[in-house]
Amino acid sequence: MVVRAYQHSLRGSHLPAGQPVLEVDAVSLRFGGVKALTDISFTVTEGHVHAVIGPNGAGKSSLLNCISGLYHPQEGEIRLHTADAPAGGAPESENGTTGEVRTHTLTSLAPYKIARLGVARSFQNIELFAHMTVLENLMLGRHIHMKKSVLASMLWFGPARNQEIEHRHLVEEVIDLLQLQAVRNKPVGSLAYGIQKRVELGRALCLQPALLLLDEPMAGMNAEEKEDMARYILDVHELAHVSVVLIEHDMNVVMDISDRVSVLDFGKLIADGTPDEVKADPAVIEAYLGAEDDDPAVREAVALQEQASEAEENDRG
Ligand SMILES: Nc1ncnc2c1ncn2[C@@H]1O[C@H](COP(=O)(O)OP(=O)(O)OP(=O)(O)O)[C@@H](O)[C@H]1O
Ligand SMILES: [Mg+2]
Predict the structure, then answer these.
(1) How far does the centroid of ligand 1 lie from the alpha carbon of residue 195, in Å?
(2) Both ends of the chain: CA-CA distance in Å?
(3) What is the fold of 20-118+209-316?
(4) Shortest-distance Cα residue to atom 11 of ligand 1
(5) Rounded to two decimals, what is the model's pTM?
(6) Domain residue ranges in the chain
(7) With contact defined as beta carbons under 8 Å apart, do 142 and 206 qualify?
(8) How distant is the alpha carbon of residue 111 from its chain centre?
């Protein structure tokens, strides 16, 4: 049976939905002569799935690396807003505010500090411990919140034991949400690719993120696996209330599951809006036409635009 009422909040911030959670402000990043990102600004709203799309080499992973602290942009600022739990565990007040809202400038912080603030991510290539079980990999996702020493945990007594049990409960909820029960004790390396990607999503979720960054979580999947993954991302979003920044190539998936889309091309932000706005944007169509394109969603958008301009010409003629 799937339990959908969670004892632990899997979301690590109490920011009310609709408020800005992440602000990318005039960010530029260079590698020698390569301009990976040029003057990028956009805002991610709490409660949204925010997609970042663009052709190969557009700068999507670089942008995620700037947010998670692996790269430090030469210009601009990235700010994360979080809110504490309301005092005494009181329910959220009527105007939607909770505890104190804090703003953190991420731009020059080390990755582990950004992770501690609640920014969790998955990587374009799977980064899990292949010989360890699913459960062990997920428990490792919790290490950042563990206060007792590893030695104490190994000796398994007193507070360390209680802490371990508490973490275990939260991990069990992640296993339940992502339906990993059947593989919990299997080594990650023995699992199908699609399930490994789901474990990676789970590990990021175990951090109780304020914001979840996913770098192409559906890359290399067939249509059915992609559909599955999209559903799990939506579950994370809708049931665990976690805000998500999602990099994805497949336009169909993006248009289906995102609330907002930012489009990068050659390191520049060429569009930012709702999926419908972005799909109809000539600059976006142009960028995707210039790139290799076997994407039905783009072909459809291009065909629609061609039809419209033909109709316009016929009207004139
Ligand atoms: N560590 C690095 N050193 C040098 N150049 C880099 C580095 N990381 C990224 N780049 C360059 O920055 C540009 C953007 O790369 P990035 O990986 O961010 O693109 P992407 O949109 O994620 O592409 P893909 O869809 O292929 O994953 C590319 O020209 C890339 O070669
Ligand atoms: Mg990339």
Answers:
(1) 26
(2) 64
(3) Rossmann fold (3.40.50)
(4) 36
(5) 0.84
(6) 20-118+209-316, 130-207
(7) yes
(8) 16
Q: Specify the ligand 1 atom closest to the Cα of 58.
A: 21
Torsion sign across C-alpha atoms 30, 36, 37, 43: negative
Provide the 8-state DSSP code for 89: G
Contact 265, 287 (CB under 8 A): yes
Helical spans, DSSP H, in the chain: 60-67, 111-116, 134-141, 150-155, 158-177, 193-205, 223-238, 251-257, 275-279, 282-290, 296-316
Of 242, 226, 231, nearest in space to 297 by CA: 226
What does the block give as tokens for 4? 């959908």
Query: What does the pLDDT profile of the chain (317 residues) look like in tens digits?
Result: 344 566 678 888 889 999 999 999 999 999 999 999 999 999 999 999 999 999 899 999 999 999 999 999 999 999 999 998 776 555 444 445 567 889 999 998 999 999 999 999 887 777 788 899 999 999 887 776 665 555 555 555 566 667 777 788 889 999 999 999 999 999 999 999 889 999 999 999 999 999 999 999 998 888 888 999 999 999 999 888 899 999 988 777 888 899 999 999 999 999 999 999 998 899 988 887 665 455 666 667 767 767 777 777 777 76
- How many angstroms is it from 8 CA to the middle of ligand 2? 32
Instruction: Report which ligand 1 atom has the smallest distance to the Cα of 32.
Output: 4
Q: Which residues line ligand 1 (CB under 6 A)?
A: 31, 34, 36, 54, 56-62, 124
> How far apart are the C-alpha atoms of 254 and 229, rounded to whole Å?
12
Which ligand is closest in space to the CA of residue 123? 2
Phi/psi region, residue 266 (left: phi>0; alpha: psi -120 to 50; beta: rest), is left
Tokens matching residue 15:
């920011």
Measured CA to CA, the distance from residue 44 to residue 242 in angstroms comes to 12
Residue that has been written with the tokens 């599951």 in this structure: 257
Cα separation of 168 and 184, whole Å?
12
